[in-house]
Amino acid sequence: MVANNEWVGVALLALFALAALVQLYYYLVHLSRMGFSKTQNHEATLPPVSIIICAKNELKNLRAFLPSIVDQDYPKYQVVVVNDCSWDESHKYLEEMEDAFPNLKVVTLTEQEKYPHGKKLALTLGIKGAEHEWLLLTDADCKPAGRDWIRTMAKNFADKNEIVLGYGAYMKEGGLLNKWVRFDTVYNALFYFSRALKGKAYMGVGRNLAYRKSLYFRNKGFASHYHIMSGDDDLFVNETATKTNTAVELNASSFTYSKPVDSFAAWIKQKKRHMSTGGLYKSADKIFLGAYFLSLSLFYLSAIILIVLKLYPELVVSMFIIRLAAQMIIFHKGTKKLGETDILWLTPFFDLLLAFVYPVLSVSNLFIKTKSWK
């Protein structure tokens, strides 16, 4: 019996060590790319740009944020707002704005009970109504960091580029929930920005994403995943990004800021919707993400069991500290670059929470589907 217990302890230690090494590999080899990346100097050609915004009952947000989008410091651009079957007073406000701003175009969809649709139809109609080759996507609840938002993103609109990934941040507010939402956003940004900087982009966020109109039509739009409610941003990038056609913009003036959710239940609903598309990623991307999060869960689970059983405490603590040190260095660089340094001190706690929350949400997505795009 004693021998069996010893073998269990050795097996747990081996599992813990393997998970820790995998984690270190990800942090030092992959996730470090974003934080340690250098700002690229691009020749600003500043081509005409069409901004696409889909809005469904977003009157409050349109009033708050649309003025900052139609008043950008950029030589030639249009703003296309798709009023997607809204039943609030959005249409009246958009009519007023359209009269006041010649660069604003409103596309209106009406509800058809026999033919329900999601955001992808609204976005498709907005893209078809766009005048220019370069499309810059954001949401109705997003506000640009300043009047140079388009100009900063457009620095990447070079001949070889077809996709530009921007950072869609959440506004800083009081409370632990706000820090949790922003931490999760930074966490994911470390992955998809670092991966893109290596020439292996697998996703972007629709709150701040640019791509060519010709790329959209060459890919036949969202045809391959139109039946999926989400994915107008990440699945499109996953399909169309190559080693050479995707750029990353991390200058603070290129950021957009959104209103965060106001409850943990709302975050869960939002997160489940975002995670629902992961199963359609390319196999290499699923393996890349799956290996990390599996090792993360096993790292904490095996560490907890070893500590509770008082097995190899010195080795466990030593490896835990090494991994934590690497993580904090990478997160310090990443949060500094994204302007989120106030959440750095919560990294160990939130990281532990994510190790168990993500698996639960992934499993729940197998049984409970999110049906609404808003």
What would the keywords be for this entry?
7-stranded mixed sheet, 51% helix, single chain, alpha/beta, 10 strands, 3-stranded mixed sheet, 374 residues
Could you characterize the architecture of this molecule?
The chain is an alpha/beta fold and 374 residues long. The protein is built from twelve helices and ten strands. It has helices at residues 2-35, 59-70, 90-100, 119-128, 149-154, 176-197, 213-218, 234-240, 264-275, 283-308, 313-337, 347-364; strands at 49-55, 77-84, 104-109, 134-139, 142-144, 163-165, 168-170, 209-212, 246-248, 256-258. A seven-stranded mixed beta sheet has the order 3-2-1-4-8-6-9, sandwiched between helices. The chain starts with a helix and ends in a 10-residue tail after the last helix. The mean pLDDT is 91.
- Describe the global form: elongated
Distance from first to last alpha carbon: 57 Å
Strand content: 5-15%
* Helical content band: 40-55%
Order of strands, widest sheet: 3-2-1-4-8-6-9
Largest sheet: 7 strands, mixed
- Quick one: how many beta strands? 10
Order of helices and strands: HEHEHEHEEHEEHEHHEEHHHH
Q: Poorly predicted ranges (pLDDT <50, ≥5 residues)? A: none
Mean pLDDT: 91
